[in-house]
Design brief:
Strands 3-4-5-6-9-10-11-12-13-14 form a ten-stranded mixed sheet, sandwiched between helices. Strands 1-2 form a two-stranded parallel ribbon. A two-stranded antiparallel sheet has the order 7-8. It is built from eleven helices and 14 strands. By secondary structure, the protein is an alpha/beta fold. The chain is 35% helix and 19% strand. It binds S-adenosyl-L-homocysteine.
Length: 350
């Protein structure tokens, strides 16, 4: 019978260390392998010349390298680049590179599709297929990092804001995160990584206990349950009171950045009342609110806010002392909103 091989890029340093030690190899072997895979970017075990012949054979017999196939690359006028990848089972995911001055951020997908069906987001429209493996998450990061290297630039930031809900694929996302942060691996700075969630309260608590050191972003989008229920069905499972008790726990025990994403939708969530509710909700927290004008998705009827509405909402927030930044919409001409490119691929319009 053919032996089941493991995807080498799904291994954290600790799991590879354990695996190789059990097979009788020295403690440093896993570090050497990590160095080849992530620093030297070597994808053939036989070319890892400082490893013993026996170890190279062992690795070849027990591990393999998965890869992503690029289907489409679209560059926006504002410099962001969207990559559509096919996975080995012919499903599709997207990653987006967002260059901003010296900072190059990659936005990663964590699942094929999404189960949460937010009523403004393209990702949920095609339903949920499966979780990504740690390697499929790491591969997106490596692809974009290599793409930048060829252009003499460096990947500096990572956000889990692509397709899927990272905390619905908790174990694999945490593994991928450890590989991305690993000094012997990709070595992206902890403070440069953010995980975004639609608000799975129990996972937020588990994540706080993990104390990994990366930032947390909450997709809030509404300041009262009756509104949030309309656009985010997950709110019926974890209403704002539960979400905020988890968020307060995270904020208390981890001193890492806490952001709330707030999509501004015309005539829906940007009234004075919303500002007052937001103010009350974030009181006592160490936070920042990221305001994003709604990026239209044709299946939904929402309208983006006018510049007058944005200006008024920002003025109210300022008057009430709520901290926020206004995010410029990026990549609108390349359908940069979460899941849009994958949706078009399915519709045969790419
Ligand atoms: N499931 C995670 C991560 C994916 S969504 C989460 O919910 O946070 C990443 C971000 O893109 C979220 O803040 C989401 O609300 C936002 N987003 C999705 N569709 C959008 C749209 N049409 N316009 C603007 N932002 C959108």
């Amino acid at each position: 019978m053919l032996k089941q091989r493991h995807d080498i890029k799904s291994q954290t340093l600790a799991s590879l260390q354990q695996h190789l030690q059990e097979a009788g190899y020295p403690d440093y072997a896993a570090r050497q392998v990590f160095n080849w895979v992530y620093k030297k970017r070597e994808e053939s075990f036989f070319s890892m010349t400082n490893l013993s012949r026996s170890l190279r054979h062992y690795l070849k017999d027990n591990f393999y390298f998965s890869s992503l196939r690029l289907v489409k690359e679209r560059q926006s006028r504002d410099g962001s680049v969207k990559f559509l990848f096919a996975l080995e089972d012919k499903t599709y995911i997207e990653s987006v590179l967002i260059p901003e001055g010296k900072r190059n951020t990659v936005c990663l997908s964590s699942q094929v599709g999404c189960r949460f069906g937010c009523r403004f987001c393209a990702s949920g429209l095609l339903g949920f297929k499966r979780n990504l493996t740690p390697a499929e998450i790491v591969n997106q990061c490596l692809y974009v990092s290599d793409w930048l290297k060829r252009r003499e630039a460096k990947l500096t930031n990572v956000v889990f804001m692509g397709i899927g809900e990272p905390f619905d694929n908790y174990e694999n996302v945490i593994k991928a995160l450890r590989i991305i942060l690993e000094p012997q691996g990709m070595y992206i700075g902890k403070r440069k990584v953010v995980i975004s969630t639609c608000g799975l309260a129990p996972a937020i608590k588990a994540f706080a206990a993990e104390n990994i050191g990366v930032g947390l972003s909450i997709s809030l989008h509404a300041a009262k349950d009756s509104l949030r229920n309309i656009i985010m069905p997950v709110n019926k499972i974890y209403p704002l009171s539960e979400l905020f008790s988890a968020v307060r726990l995270f904020n208390r025990c981890c001193k890492y950045s806490l952001t709330f994403e707030y999509i501004m939708i015309s005539n829906f969530n940007i009234s004075k009342e919303d500002v007052l509710r937001l103010k009350k909700m974030v009181k006592g927290l160490n936070y920042k609110i990221n305001l994003i004008p709604y990026n239209p998705v044709s299946s939904f009827n929402w309208q983006p806010p006018s510049s007058g509405e944005i200006f008024r909402f920002c003025r109210w927030l300022k008057e009430e002392g709520v901290f926020f930044t206004l995010r410029r919409p990026r990549g609108q001409d390349i359908e940069g909103a979460c899941g849009q490119l994958r949706l078009r691929q399915k519709q045969g319009k790419v």
